[in-house]
Design goal:
It contains 9 helices and 7 strands. By secondary structure, the chain is an alpha/beta fold. It folds into 2 domains: about 230 residues, NAD(P)-binding Rossmann-like Domain (Rossmann fold, 3-Layer(aba) Sandwich), CATH 3.40.50.720; about 35 residues, no CATH class.
Length: about 280
């Protein structure tokens, strides 16, 4: 009976919760916003720099449940304003999904040819922006006396192994793991959990351009070939959203400082297409 309830579409795991999702206008962020809405989140604030996309997502979720706010995570003042606005409008912040991130679309940074200037934006978004989101979400949760707050960061399977190229991206995502581990230690005494979800090869338009695929369909075929988990199709943004939901809800109430890799058993040695 309990199992049926847990798997029922009527079982809302996020009732009364208020969530922020950065990078929520498309991809993993959008899929997570829709899943949070299905699970009864009271308010979902999508933050992004893709204003039209973000507004359309919020409108499509509807019922006043989801709103959009422009936020460039490289600007700490904008992140702080995002969090303050959310708390002012909805009374609290329970969940921060710090998801905004980019990849160097040339996928070509190597040790010998490392261009520090071209890497500045990757570090500004993937690392500095991540810290700003964790910092200000945590401050709001502590200041608001929120017990059971959850902060989830988007990492990457590439943080778990080395590649000869795309070093800037790999470094930025390894820093996310360090942030999660340290923040979870510092925030545990406030009842705030900090975890990371690390996607494998999700064939989105962005990742396919970076990997030099001609289409998303080509990307799907490639990743299915090098994924060790066969017969399940290509990894989808919905698969990542399900992992984020786990960390956001009470199913993981005693889990913190963890990195959940969702990669369909990706074989890193197969990533030679990106050379």
């Amino acid at each position: 009976m309990t199992e049926k309830l847990a798997n029922s579409p009527n079982h809302k795991k996020l009732e009364s919760k208020v969530a922020i999702i950065t990078g929520g206008a498309s991809g993993i962020g959008e899929a997570t916003a829709r899943l949070f809405a299905e699970h009864g989140a009271r308010a979902i604030v999508i933050a992004d720099i893709q204003d039209i996309l973000g507004q359309n997502v919020a409108k499509s979720i509807g019922n006043g449940q989801c709103t959009y706010m422009h936020c460039d995570v490289t600007c700490e003042d904008q992140v702080e304003a995002l969090v303050e606005s959310t708390v002012k409008n909805f009374g609290q912040l329970n969940i921060m999904f710090s998801n905004a991130g980019i990849i160097n679309e040339t996928f070509s940074q190597t040790v010998l040819d490392f261009d520090l200037n071209s890497s500045d934006r990757i570090f500004a978004i993937n690392t500095r922006g991540m810290v700003a989101c964790v910092k200000h979400a945590a401050r709001a949760m502590v200041g608001g006396g929120v017990i059971g707050g959850s902060i989830i960061c988007t990492g990457s399977v590439l943080a778990s192994f080395a590649l000869p190229q795309s070093i800037d991206y790999v470094m930025s995502k390894k820093a996310v793991l360090g942030l999660v581990e340290c923040a979870s230690k510092g925030l545990g005494k406030y009842g705030i959990r900090v975890n990371c979800v690390s996607p494998g090869g999700v064939p989105t338009p962005l990742t396919c351009r970076a990997s030099k695929f001609d289409s998303v369909e080509e990307g799907e075929s490639f990743f299915m070939e090098i994924n060790r988990l066969k017969g399940c199709g290509a990894l989808r943004v919905e698969n990542i959203a399900n992992a984020v939901l786990f960390f956001a809800c009470n199913d993981s109430e005693l889990v913190t400082g963890q990195n959940l890799v969702v990669d369909a058993g990706l074989d890193p040695h197969g990533l030679t297409k990106a050379d």
